[in-house]
TrEMBL record:
One of its GO terms (molecular function) is NF-kappaB binding. Signal peptide: none annotated. GO terms for biological process: negative regulation of DNA-templated transcription; tumor necrosis factor-mediated signaling pathway. Pfam families: COMM_domain (PF07258), COMM_HN (PF21672). This is COMM domain containing 7. The gene is commd7. Transmembrane segments: none annotated. Residues 85-182 form the COMM domain. InterPro entries: COMM, COMMD4/6/7/8. It comes from Salarias fasciatus (Jewelled blenny).
Length: 182
């Protein structure tokens, strides 16, 4: 089975999970997709996502464990679609191949913005300090405070003066570019 969101061969467990998903009624399926998109738009709310899945399982008389496992497989589709920048037609083709359809278009823009936001936040520069001097007088030490996820990390670099001024120039260019977008 060739799918756009996953260039590799789809594992049997994922195919099996999508087959199980196809047994849901349209109303059940729509509710699950609603829960899924709510989580994708607010990924920090994993606890709420798990709670909603447990509530859904209880309402439908299902076991929560297998439902959560099924949703892990289902999550591969939107995550792969965002990573590979798939069009709505490619996503629709994948869903049809897997036996389902869903209105992706209304959520596609939000998911794309979220993906860009997460990409830009991977190594966010929080602070910058530099000291001139050091052992050889022609060197400077640069300390960057970088936010990686929920924690910050100090990154130290030693630069020659020409390297430092080149770095400073590039940072000023980046700042000017970012100001154009805001």
């Amino acid at each position: 089975m060739k799918l756009h969101f996953n260039r590799d061969v789809l594992p049997d467990s994922v195919s099996s999970d999508f087959s199980k998903l196809n047994k849901f009624s349209e109303q059940q399926f729509q509710r699950l997709i609603e829960i899924l998109f709510q989580f994708l738009l607010e990924p920090k709310e994993a606890e709420r996502f798990m709670q909603q899945l447990s509530e859904f399982a209880a309402e439908q008389g299902l076991s929560a464990g297998p439902l959560k496992s099924l949703m892990k497989s289902v999550l591969l589709l939107p995550q792969g679609a965002v990573k590979k920048n798939l069009t709505s037609e490619q996503i629709r083709d994948d869903l049809l191949t897997l036996g389902r359809t869903v209105s992706w278009g209304e959520n596609c823009g939000s998911l794309s913005r979220l993906a860009v936001g997460q990409t830009l936040m991977v190594n966010q520069l929080v602070d910058l300090e530099w000291k001139f001097g050091g052992e050889p007088a022609q060197r400077s030490e640069l300390k960057l405070v970088v936010r990686r996820g929920s924690s910050t990390e100090n990154v130290y670099m030693e630069l020659t003066l020409p390297q430092f001024y080149n770095f400073l120039h590039e940072m000023e260019r980046a700042k000017a570019s970012m100001e154009c977008f805001s």
